[in-house]
Design brief:
The complex is a heterodimer of chains A (127) and B (367). By secondary structure, chain A is of the alpha+beta class. Chain A is built from three helices and nine strands. With 367 residues, chain B is an alpha+beta fold. Chain B has eight helices and 19 strands. Classes of the chains: A alpha+beta (127), B alpha+beta (367). Chains A and B meet through strand 4 and strand 6 of A and helix 7 of B.
Chain lengths: 127, 367
């Protein structure tokens, strides 16, 4: 159900590490479904640095707002600027076109969940 | 946690893959797979079908019914003709709200009061408490009653083939009794969306059959099942009050901009003295509509209105508006600041964000 090459947080963000020490970050299919129609994603400036678990932005849906917390310490290399005009990509393709930031990892991936552990967490939350 | 209450359509919502939430103790659909924006747009441009069976129905009947309802509500009940409806409220002595409601005049001596789900027990107790001395019966019919709301510009053309009752002659805020898909219904030309539409009341056990008949008739025309999520954005665009937001037991009827339901010259009613005094004194605060100026600045319910870092008011309801395409809200602000075009600031997670007071309702349908 959840892509096996990603790492997950208990707050429903995902992180996709690359071989060059960078990673993409977004929110999971479960998170976008809970939010409903996304209308705005507030993203940081390129160059901003955050610790693990720190808030790097917010995602706003019609009915609510949610904090975005960085799954691992990192510096922002790039933000997904297409979300400014197409925030619905977060709903339509949360693990793909809906990515939010690309970071240079400055810390480890300690405490992140694999797909199986995340699926267990989600299934416990939705029952 | 106690078990959530379920409407007669609970299984139907689940079969439609609705997302269910706890709404004041009721297990209700917040949205269906189409999503809040699509459901909102369907109601504005075609039609949407809502389950509102959680609403409460209280019937007051007998020679003293008119006098009791006049005593309990500020609007002029005696002015209602048979088959007419009006919007009104139950007020406390101090002029604040027990609840808001619709009064249906079924007969000279019979009224149906339609109240909010979350307040139904409190409202029923309130009516019962004041009933002694009035020669009438007070019955809570809520558990036995289902209600669905068909809303949108295509509502009439979807519903008409299902009923022999001519719908076009039913005026806004009037009702009649008839059959829909062969099932006895109260057919009411009312709603909470700002669009044309009908609310259908029937026996609880018949609700699913009425729902299915309307869905089948409307789906080819673009009808969508619609949840509480878009019900909220639709009513917000039209500045319709929601108990717990624009009105509650701390807010007076005149502050809420509901002077039009208060008929001070109709004679005695609960809350009249307080409202007479309030009318004679300058208003302290007013309910205004506002928009934030930046796309990223989305105000939400209960945020503070601030000036020089200090709270001076509060947001009652706010959301990105699917129809208007801007971020809207309603807020109580000091009267001195309640000027059209005036600047106010909203505290959005620690940032004082600029907003502008704009005319309401934010949306008005073309007739």
């Amino acid at each position: 159900m959840f892509p096996a090459d990603l790492k997950y947080t208990k707050d429903h963000e995902w992180l996709k590490p690359a071989a060059d020490g960078t990673a993409l970050v977004g929110i999971t299919s479960y998170a976008q479904d809970a939010l409903g129609d996304v209308v705005f994603v507030d993203l940081p400036e390129v160059g901003a640095a955050f610790g693990q678990g720190e808030e790097f932005g917010t995602v706003e849906s019609v009915k609510t707002v949610s904090e975005l917390n960085l799954p691992a310490a990192g510096e922002v290399l790039e933000v997904n600027t297409t979300l400014a005009d197409h925030p619905e990509a977060v709903n339509e393709d949360p693990f793909g076109r809906g990515w939010m930031v690309k970071i240079k990892l400055t810390g480890d991936l300690a405490g992140l969940l694999d797909a199986q552990a995340y699926e267990a967490l989600v299934s416990a939350e939705s029952h | 946690m106690s078990e959530l209450m379920k409407t007669p359509l609970n299984a139907a919502h689940r079969a439609l893959n609705a997302k269910m939430v706890d709404f004041g103790g009721w297990d209700m659909p917040v949205q269906y797979p189409a999503g809040i924006i699509a459901e909102h747009e369907a109601v504005r441009t075609k039609a949407g079908l809502f389950d509102v069976s959680h609403m409460g129905e209280i019937r007051v009947k007998g020679p003293g019914a008119l006098a009791l309802v006049e005593h309990l509500t500020p609007n002029a009940v005696s002015q209602l003709v048979l088959g007419q409806i009006h919007y009104t409220a139950f007020l406390y002595e101090n002029g604040t709200f027990v609840d808001d409601l619709l009064v249906y005049r079924e007969d000279e001596e019979e009224f149906l009061l339609v109240v909010n789900a979350g307040n139904c027990d409190k409202d029923f107790a309130w009516v019962q408490q004041h009933a002694p001395g009035y020669d009438c019966t007070v019955v809570n019919e809520s558990p036995a009653t289902g209600q669905i709301a068909l809303q949108g510009p295509l509502a009439l053309s979807i519903l008409q083939p299902l009923t022999p009752t001519p719908l076009a002659p039913i005026g806004y805020y009037y009702f009649t009794h008839g059959e829909v898909a062969g099932i006895k219904c109260l057919i009411s030309r009312t709603g909470y969306t700002g669009e044309d539409g009908f609310e259908l009341y029937c026996a609880a056990g018949d609700t699913e059959a009425v729902w299915n008949a309307v869905m089948a008739a409307g789906t080819p025309q673009g009808l969508l099942p619609a949840g509480l999520g878009c019900r909220n954005t639709l009513r917000l665009e039209c500045k319709m009050a929601l108990y717990g937001h624009e009105i509650d037991d701390t807010i007076q009827a005149l502050e809420a901009g509901l002077g039009w339901i208060v008929k001070l010259d109709k004679g005695s009613f609960i809350g009249r003295e307080a409202l007479l005094a309030a009318k004679a004194a300058p208003a302290v605060r007013k309910l205004v509509g506002f928009k934030t100026l930046e796309k990223r600045d989305i105000a939400r319910d209960h945020m503070a209105v601030v000036q020089d870092g200090q709270p001076i008011g509060f947001v009652t309801s706010a959301a990105p508006s699917p129809t208007c395409g801007i971020n809207l809200g309603l807020a109580y602000v000091p009267t001195a600041l309640a000027k059209m075009g005036g600047p106010i600031q909203i505290d959005i997670r620690g940032r004082a964000v600029p907003a502008e007071i704009i005319p309401t309702p934010f949306y008005k349908r073309q007739k």
